[in-house]
Each structure stands twice: as structure tokens, then as C-alpha cells.
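The pair is quoted verbatim below.
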Amino acid sequence: MIELDIEEVKAYAKLLKEENLKVLTIKDGDFKIHLEANVADAPAVGQQAAPEPEAGGEEASGHTVKAKQVGTFFIEKEENSDETFVSVGDEVAEGDTLGVIEAMKVFNDVKAEVPGTVEEILVGNGESVEYDQPLFILRPKED
């Protein structure tokens, strides 16, 4: 059995806060520690809650692209660049890259799930995102 002292737990909690992570899970064989940030205490720096589409509302016809993982969202192709993957009004095909989510130095593409037009970009460049958080609203292409 692995022993974990309070100083190690504090160090992990400090890492969680310093890296602005929402969740930290560490596994070593049968040992597992899972820490989650208290979202209510977390500052919402430049982050705006995305409205959930309501049935019968204007957004009901839009397709919401959601985050498939927790991480940092980037819409810029390169750091400190003005070149973005997409902008509002851009036409996209199914499978086109809309942005990327970085987690632990691994970049994962956020792909368009349907062909259409980018109606809204709900998250800013460099902002932390949660699993299943809405990132884009696409107006599906009508056949």
C-alpha cells in the first residue's frame, strides 16, 4: 500500500491551482488520487458562460460543437498569431478543424461534426474548457 502524506496532497493541490486545472488524477498501479478544483471559487477571467440552446429557440436549428476533453482551447493556429482556424461566417465541411484543445502538451483537434457555417465562437483563445462545454454553434448546411 502506498502512503501519501499531507504535504504531497498539498503539492498536488498547488499544482492544480497554479496550472489552472479543473481536474487532476494521478494513478500508480492500484493507487489513485483525484482532485477537482472548486469551480465556485475559480475566477471567471474573461470567460462567459455559454447559453444552453433551448427547444424552440433560435439556436435550436444550430449544431453545437462541444469539447471532448478538459484543457486549454486555442483558435489561433500559432501562438501570438492573427491567423485562426475559423471565424464567424466561415463555411466548414464535416471534419474540418475548428480549433484545438491542449492538455498536458498534447494538442487535439476540435472538428466540425456537420458541414455548415460558423454562427458563434463561444470560447476565447487560451481559455480553459471543461468536458462537454459548448465551443461553437454551426448552422448546418441545407442540402
The chain has two domains: 6-36, 59-140. The chain has one helix and ten strands. The longest strand covers residues 97-103. Helices lie at 6-18.
